[in-house]
Design goal:
Blueprint (H helix, E strand, L loop, with lengths): L1 E3 L5 E4 L5 E4 L8 E6 L2 E6 L2 H49 L1
Antiparallel strand pairs: 1-2, 3-4, 4-5
């Protein structure tokens, strides 16, 4: 997630797993707090905007988890293939 100024300049960014939202604040319904990589920022968001952001972060976290899971499966598959290739190579070396 990236926080930008109204002019498009980056304020801060962090992976979606490192973003936390709190709010809206009861006394000021349009104030939400976002923590990005440990830094806390106050955002002026009405309740519907806060809910949309919260939902979007949830979707992004799910997508990131799927990507990590797929990458983990792919790396396990490569490791298994490498192991099989080494075993086959070792067998050829021993039988030669």
């Amino acid at each position: 997630m990236t926080l930008l100024t109204s002019y498009g300049r980056e304020i801060a960014s962090a992976s979606v797993d490192q973003v936390r939202l709190s709010g809206p604040v009861p006394l000021s319904r349009d104030l939400t707090f976002a923590s990005l990589d440990g830094e806390r920022y106050s955002l002026r968001l009405d309740t519907p905007a806060h809910e949309r952001l919260d939902h979007a972060l949830g979707d992004a976290r799910e997508q990131a988890a799927k990507v990590r899971e797929a990458a983990g499966r792919q790396s396990q598959s490569v490791t298994t293939r490498e192991r099989s290739t080494r075993l086959a190579s070792d067998r050829r070396t021993v039988s030669t």
